[in-house]
Amino acid sequence: MRQYIDRSMAYAGYLELIDRLLADGKTTGANQSEAMVGYGRLNRQRMARLDKTVIQDEWARAQLGANTRRQIWLVITEGWCGDAAQNVPAIEKAGAASDLIETRYVLRDENLELMDQYLTGSARSIPKLIALDAETLDVLFTWGARPAEAQELFDRRKAEGVDKPLISEEIQRWYNADHGVSVQRELAEFVTAVQSPSAAAANN
Hints:
Elements: H1 2-6, H2 11-23, H3 34-53, H4 58-65, E1 71-77, H5 82-95, E2 101-107, H6 112-115, E3 128-133, E4 139-144, H7 148-159, H8 164-178, H9 181-193, H10 197-203
Parallel strand pairs: 1-2
Antiparallel strand pairs: 1-3, 3-4
Helix pairs in contact: 2-3, 3-5, 4-9, 5-9, 7-8
């Protein structure tokens, strides 16, 4: 796991990479089609908006603020991914609630050997967050690629035979109504469940 952390980027570096590529008419990953670059531009705009508009959920902030375990949240992502654009700003908001949590980003298509250890079913779905103990690098939990309610909506509509573009529109509306709250709360629940043994003993 150390090699992936060493090649990872802070959030600011991830955004700078996307912006630099877009300035050259490119996006992340090997597929540089006009459509993929278009997705990259659209999703960068979404991230810029969400970085300003995602509101820190107070319950999640309190839970994350009580965290006593140093963690690295290693997030597998790509600049062209719609789910990543929606969820990464909320992941950043959640991580910022604790001084003991550091977020780092790696690109999926450059790290497929890591991605393939954390599939969603059989899919390389992103974003995928791998929470690591900062000292031991043990995996504490994983999250992604969508909040549970959004994933349930996707799975249900897919089972009903709805075309993917229509499902994507429904998922987009769900994200717009959720405002990043579900991501923050789900991550807060995970963090609360993996507090260090010493912290758990102190609370008993």
